[in-house]
User: What shape does this take?
Amino acid sequence: MKRYYFVITYLPEQASQEILAGRCISTLHDFLVFHHIGGIGVGFPRWTEQSLGNQIMFCSSNLQRLSQLHQTQYFTMMLAQGLFAVSDVEPVPADTAEVRFYRNQGIAKLFTGEKRRRLERAKRRAAERGEVFDPERIGSNQPIGLFHRILMDSQSTQQRFVLHVQKEKAAEVSDAEFNGYGLATNQSYRGTVPDIRIVI
Assistant: This one.
């Protein structure tokens, strides 16, 4: 299976990587919804323990659709303004290692505000069922690994939300299994992308 990719580099040194990644992913999301398609994955070539890095990669086996995404208005506008560098669409080199960037929605449940909402909901439901509320059963103390946040703006609700993203190595290629944001998930979508590292 032949796959293709392109990489966007955010050029301003002080730019928020979390916000620019969110805008690029929103562009992908709108593109997927408009064309009623999937199968385009997202990667972060300069991901480190400290940050997402100043690059985002898009990958797909569908060259035509990836080329169309490459030419979307937001990307071409940011390129024209000198804020982005955008690579050409290229074939993925043979024998490239595979990685998986996945959205872990469970991470949001570990933060105080979300914990409080979940406790209040559980308490209300227990009262409705006539059961004794046991807060010890709510929540999880499982350790979580390294993650980075991507800031997204919902067009439907006009509110900001956060994608918590983690990275793991993958043993083999798994194509076309991504959610609407180009990411894998803990269970349903297990798509992988090539571990591309390029300099623009």
